[in-house]
User: Which sequence fits this backbone?
């Protein structure tokens, strides 16, 4: 009554094998990456465009930082 033995027929088919730890780790990493991409693109129609604008803004900021401590480069107004 109620014995749980794999030799009783179809019970062997019901056993779920746990995947190799390396495979499990890879699957979890892929799932996390997918969730991250979905979360970052939520509400954004053109992800590529947003990434390009972000890179361009970072490049502009780097150039401004590298231009020197003057800070306000460009034209100067003359009051007079």
Assistant:
């Amino acid at each position: 009554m109620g014995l749980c033995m794999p030799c009783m027929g179809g019970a062997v088919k019901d056993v779920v094998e746990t995947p190799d730890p390396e495979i499990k780790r890879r699957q979890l990493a892929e799932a996390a990456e997918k969730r991250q991409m979905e979360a970052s693109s939520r509400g954004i129609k053109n992800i590529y465009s947003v990434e390009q604008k972000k890179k361009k803004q970072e490049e502009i900021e780097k150039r401004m930082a590298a231009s020197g401590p003057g800070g306000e480069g460009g034209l100067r107004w003359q009051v007079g």
